Structures are given as structure tokens and as C-alpha cells.
Amino acid sequence: MARTKKVGVTGRFGARYGRKAKRTVKKIEENMKKYHTCPQCDRPGVKRVSTGIWKCRKCNTVFTGGAYVPRTPMGKTAARNIKRIVGGT
User: Distance between terminal CA atoms of the chain?
Assistant: First the structure.
């Protein structure tokens, strides 16, 4: 299957679904499939095992996170608030 630089991983959809939907899918999938930084060893070796399950290839740490990224924006906000509340008392 030929993919061009413009459509990338969404080349499998062909002429279906429209440009905006395919751009959204492309952005999500490319971000999901790249290496992410491990929260344990701080190295870029985290890959997605399954939906919401992530594993570091360097230190073999397995942890849960978002469906498409290991740390979601909402999770970052929650961690910051917990740290603020616990650290303040």
C-alpha cells in the first residue's frame, strides 16, 4: 500500500471519511506510536502495549496511562493538584 508524505498513516482510508477526520486520526496515531519518556528512568523507551497500558523497553516498567498517550493533560492537572494539597498540609 503506497502512502504519501501528506497522508501518512491515514493512506489506508483512501478517498473516504474526509480531510479533517483523517488529519485528526493522523495526529493521534503518530503521537501514539512514537517513543515516550519513562516516568521511572526518564529515558525515551515507552511504547503502548494495549489500550491504556504502557511499557518501558529500557527498565521494563509497566504502567497505566491514557488510551493514546501515557500522561494525559487531565492526569497532569490531577497530579499537580494532589502534590499541591499534600505538600501544603
Answer: 59
pLDDT over threshold 80, residue 9: yes
Q: Specify whether 45 is located in the same domain as 81.
A: yes
What is the domain extent for residue 87? 34-89
The helix (run of H) or strand (run of E) holding residue 75 is helix 73-88
Per-residue cell: 48 = 503502548
pLDDT-derived band at 3 (thresholds 50, 70, 90) equals: low
Verify that 25 and 5 share a domain, yes or no: yes
Tell me if 4 sits within 8 A of 26, measured CB to CB: no
Indicate the pTM of the whole model: 0.77
